[in-house]
Design brief:
single chain; 276 residues; mainly alpha; 12 helices; 75% helix
């Protein structure tokens, strides 16, 4: 069957499976700032696949159905189990398996391997379970609060901390979940993965860059709390709210992204030196 007649069937199959799952996923991207990067992930993956379209046309004639069907069945089983247990992460993760399986059916094993990275990158669009979210955000809050307290003390700002709440002479600051750094961490992990791929860092250096997103997120978010503490001490509660609070969030992410790219360049340089 010609490709132009074959392609609509996988799309129709996927649309039938996920006609309720995908709209709810998109809604979560829209209403939850922690996962708003989800809008960019499928677009980025689609762009990478589109860049390989010429090679995929050649691979489409070498289809091997069985591995693709098995991947689809794994995804469908995850979808059924997720719906039975009301577990959104499993339901949404199944999209990646079904997409990969359908991709294999249409473009064969060579096409699947060619596009393995953009297909696997789709996992970044799936919000992590909130039990895991809470498990990550709590220690991040404590670490950021600790850094904030000690950095403010170093510059002479009197501060007393209880858990994630810092008491200054004229106000108290709470390091909430939104200020824990997990929001930027999720995006920085995706950025680190993309940077490692484009710079061909390999598994070891790519893994190092991926893991470095954690301390980068902690350091940049701690700086945000430090600056917020100073401004609040000097100018009052309003300095920690409104425009500055929103703008500083973007500034922290941009700073973290810049640090990650610098680290990626250093790791790239190290790889060249070692390979000589």
């Amino acid at each position: 069957m010609h490709d132009k007649f074959l392609l609509p069937f996988p799309l129709l199959f996927a649309a039938t499976l996920y006609w309720t799952v995908v709209p709810r996923l998109v809604r979560d991207w829209w209403v939850d700032p922690n996962f708003s990067h989800g809008f960019l992930v499928p677009l980025f993956s689609a762009w990478l696949i589109w860049e390989r379209r010429a090679e995929l046309r050649a691979f489409a004639s070498k289809r091997t159905l069985v591995p693709g069907i098995l991947l689809v069945l794994v995804g469908v089983a995850m979808l059924v189990l997720g719906k039975a247990g009301g577990e959104y992460f499993t339901m949404r993760s199944s999209i990646v398996f079904v997409t990969g399986g359908l991709f294999w059916i249409v473009f064969g094993g060579d096409g699947f391997r060619l596009c393995l990275f953009p297909l696997a990158f789709l996992f970044f669009m799936v919000p992590i379970p909130y039990i895991l979210y809470d498990a990550i955000s709590f220690p991040l809050k404590m670490i950021a609060s600790w850094f904030g307290e000690h950095s403010l003390t170093l510059v002479g700002v009197p501060v007393f901390r209880e858990g994630n709440i810092m008491f200054l002479p004229n106000l108290q600051l709470e390091v909430a979940d939104a200020c824990s750094g997990i929001r930027s961490l999720m995006s920085l992990l995706a950025l680190a993965t993309a940077a490692a791929y484009f710079m061909t860092l390999g598994v070891a250096r790519g893994g190092a860059l991926f893991l470095s997103a954690i301390p980068v997120s902690i350091v940049t978010n701690s700086m945000r709390i430090f600056v917020t503490g100073i401004l609040s001490y000097k100018f009052g509660q309003k300095a920690a709210e409104g425009f500055f609070h929103d703008f500083s969030g973007w500034l922290i992410f941009v700073s973290g992204a810049g640090l990650l790219l610098v680290l990626a360049l250093i790791l790239k340089k190290i790889g060249k030196v070692v390979s000589r």
